[in-house]
Write a structure and sequence with these properties.
By secondary structure, this protein is of the alpha/beta class. It is 32% helix and 19% strand. The strands form 3 sheets. The protein has a 6-stranded mixed sheet. Helix 3 runs antiparallel to helix 4. The protein is globular.
């Protein structure tokens, strides 16, 4: 997929997830979450090619500009959208699938200082509420919703609703996660 196609896809994801999006120009020029993701793609390529210091410098400069810290070693899928974004931290060994949306203040962090996989794996179609913390080398199943300020430290099945501190897993039923986001019981 070409760079322009990927940018169009990202702008489409912003339109889908943000009812306040007014137009393409506004999205491209003023959405810090998109700017952080675009910079991450460049930094991730540098990281993979062995230019690790340059990649880390790029990620820190992006953090300075956007308030969003994405380690260049993190793997991020397509149509990833960060709404508002300030205070988001994504660790080095985090792996994110496609069609994920996260809000401000989210941490995808580690719990240990050891080498190897330390950060979470997030399945396709997951929504993560403001202030949520997903910690350690765990897996959040596809189509799950993590509520605002939840602290997730254990694996969860696909299509789960994760609420509380520590997060408690609840099955979500068969509806689409997009509809669940509109239900007041599941506001994140």
């Amino acid at each position: 997929m070409g760079m322009l196609s990927r940018v169009r896809e990202d702008v489409g994801a912003a339109r889908t997830h943000d009812p306040a999006a007014r137009g393409t120009l506004e999205i491209v020029l003023s959405y810090a979450g998109l700017h952080a993701v675009w910079a991450h793609r460049v930094n991730h390529r540098l990281w993979k090619r062995g230019f690790r210091t340059l990649a880390r410098f790029g990620s820190q400069f992006t953090r300075f500009l956007t308030g969003i810290e994405i380690h260049p070693g993190a793997t991020i899928g397509r149509r990833f959208f960060i709404d508002h974004g300030m205070g988001v931290v994504i660790g080095e060994t985090a792996e994110l699938g496609d069609d994920i949306m996260i809000y401000h203040g989210v941490t995808l962090g580690g719990k240990s200082l050891g080498a190897g996989k330390r950060h979470p794996t997030i399945g396709d179609g997951v929504a993560v509420g403001a202030g949520a913390k997903i910690l350690g080398p765990i897996t959040v199943g596809a189509g799950s919703i993590v509520g605002a300020n939840a602290v997730v430290t254990k694996d969860c099945a696909p299509r789960s609703l994760l609420l509380g501190v520590p997060a408690v897993e609840r099955p979500r039923g068969t509806g689409s996660h997009g509809l669940a986001l509109l239900d007041p019981e599941y506001h994140i």
